[in-house]
């Protein structure tokens, strides 16, 4: 499919919309950004956004022309590589069974396992008012973050430039956003404890697309 000139991303730094901007930059696609404020509980009072883009008022919101709206960041990532990466620069082809399996595994692991634990820990240590935080639950989810990071640390051994056979893919973009939050907000990613993650993280951060996505 030819690149669309109608792609729009509803974006705030530190949210999952950063993943989408990162990938769009890597793909070299034209796109528009509608900047939104970062609010911990979403944009529920933004009636137009809730009604037309994301019914929960969360980010990202993504549209490709008048007929396509996607509200899950990993779904946006997969849509973009399927539609606009015919040379498979950022995702293995379906015919490469082993690489494709690894790619899909890490794409989903980043969100379903690691990001879930990171997000819940943030909620009960940083976001919620003190009286609404559950310290016991936060400690349990911190264990989940540690377990997820340990899995990632082992998988990244010898793979500084990418989780799938050492090659950079969209899975790295999804993982990077979650590790970014675990590092920047929770301070749980030390080079001493996670040297493989730290080396990979530093390399991904050098990419111009990362700077664009995370410094806006």
Descriptive keywords:
Glutaredoxin, alpha+beta, Thioredoxin-like_sf, glutathione transferase activity, 2 domains, 4-stranded mixed β-sheet, Glutathione-S-Trfase_C-like, single chain, 216 residues, Glutathione S-transferase Yfyf (Class Pi), Chain A, domain 2, 4 strands
How does this model look, in words?
With 216 residues, the chain is an alpha+beta fold. It is 53% helix and 7% strand. It has a 4-stranded mixed beta sheet with strand order 2-1-3-4. It is globular and about 45 Å long. It starts with 6 loop residues before the first strand and ends with a helix. It holds the Pfam family GST_C_2.
Portion in strands: 5-15%
- CATH-defined fold name of the largest domain: Glutathione S-transferase Yfyf (Class Pi), Chain A, domain 2
Percent of residues in helices comes to 40-55%
Count of DSSP-assigned helices = 8
- Please tell me the overall pLDDT: 94
Kindly provide the name of the CATH class of the largest domain.
Answer: Mainly Alpha
Q: Cα-atom Rg, whole angstroms?
A: 17 Å
Q: Which residues sit in consecutive blocks of at least 5 with pLDDT less than 50?
A: none
**Alpha-carbon distance between the termini?**
29 Å
Major sheet details: 4 strands, mixed
Please tell me the total number of domains. Answer: 2
The CATH architecture of the largest domain: Up-down Bundle
Walk across the major sheet and give the strand order.
2-1-3-4
Main structural class: alpha+beta
Task: Describe the global form.
Answer: globular
Number of strands: 4
